[in-house]
Model the fold of this input.
Amino acid sequence: MNSQDFQLFSNIVKSRSGLVLTEEKVYLLESRLVPLARRRGLENLEALADEVRRSNDEHLLEEITEAMTTNETFFFRDTKPFDTFRDAVLPQLLKQRAAKKSLRIWTAACSTGQEPYSIAMLLKEEAAKMAGWRVEIMATDISREVLEKAKAGLYSQFEVQRGLPIQLLMKHFHQVGEMWQIDSSIRAMVKFQPKNLLEDLGSVGQFDVIFCRNVLIYFDQITKSKVLKEIHKALADDGALFLGGAETVLGICDSFKPIDGQRGVYTSADGGLTAAPQANSAA
Amino acid sequence: MPSCLIVDDSKVVRMVAKRILEDLSFGILEAEDGKGALNTCLEKMPDVILLDWNMPVMNGIDFLRTLRSSENGEQPVVIFCTTENDMAHIREAISAGANEYIMKPFDRAIIEAKFSQVGVL
Done:
C-alpha cells in the first residue's frame, strides 16, 4: 500500500473513531480492509482508496471505520474489576442511592455485549439485595454491526468458554444449534445503542457507574483527554469509572482521582465515593 | 509444583493438553481411561484432573462418581474436557461433582480461563 492511501485510511479512522493507526499497523489495515474491498467488487486497497476519493460515500467511510475498530472482548474479562464492582462499589452505591433506589450503569465501547451481559448476570445474582430497585444498563459502541450481534446475545462455543463460569452458562444460557444464547431475561436488562465516544456525550445523561475498559489505549493523548472529560460529565460525582488494566487518568485528565486500593477504578475529583470501598476476595 | 492428571484415550489430546499445562507450570500425570486414572489417584491424589467423557474400560462420569465417593476424592479439582457439548451432559457432570467443564475443541486461552476460574492458576 502506498503512503498516500495509508494516510487516507488512517485519517478516516482517526477522525471518526479516535483510533490511531501507525505505519507498523499497515498489516492490520490490509487484513481488515481487503475483505471490505472485495465485498464491494474492488480488486485491491488502491481501488478502495480511489473509490473513497471519488465518492466520499458516508456509508463506505463508516464501514472502513467499523472494520478497523477492535472488538476483542470476553465475559468477565480480567475478573477483578467485576469482583471490585460487586464487592466494593455496588454495596457503597446501594447505600448512597437507598432513597432513590435507582442505578444507571454505562458500558462504553461494549463490542459484542459480553461486558454488559456480565454486569447483568452479576446483578441478577445480587437480586436479593436489590428488590424494588430500578437498574438501567446502557451499552454503546461505534459499530452497528457488533451491536446487532450483542442484541441477539448469540455466542459461539469458543466465546462462552472464555471467562464465563460453567454455573452461569447453565443458569443463563440455552443452546441454539451449535451456538449459545443468553436468556431473554438477561438480554432485557441491557439497552444497546450506537454511540461514538468522540461525539458530545451530553445526551446520555448521568450514570452511577461507567465501564470504559480497553478503549483509551487505542487513542492518542489529546483524544484520551477529550473522551475522559466527556465521561466525567456523564458520571455522577459519587460514581465510579472503571478503566482497563493498562489505562489510567493520571497525567491525562485531572477531573478524576483513583479510589484507594482499587486498581483501575476512579471517582470524580470534585466529590467522589463517600468512603473508600474495601474489596473482598474474588468468589 | 501443582500436579494435573490428564485423562483421555486420545494420545494426541493428552499431548496437546500436556504441552499447554507444562507451560503453565503443572507437573503432568497421564491416564488413558477412568480405571487407569483411579489407580493413579490411589497412589497420590493430583491437585487437578482434566477429564474426558467417552473412554473404554471406565468412562469419565463413572470415574468421577467413584472418585468423589472415595477417601480424599473430594480434594482434586475436576474439569471435564469432552466433545459432549450439550446442556444435559454439562448438568450431569456438575451434579456428579465436576468443578468446571470444557467443550472440545479447546485451546490455550480456554484452558487458562477455566483453570483460573477454579482457582488453580
In short: Chain B touches chain A at residues 85-87, 90-91, 94, 100-103, 106-107, 109-110, 113-114, 116-117 (CB under 8 Å). The beta strands of chain B are 3-7, 27-31, 48-51, 77-82, 100-103. Chain B has a mean pLDDT of 96. Chain B has one domain: 3-115.
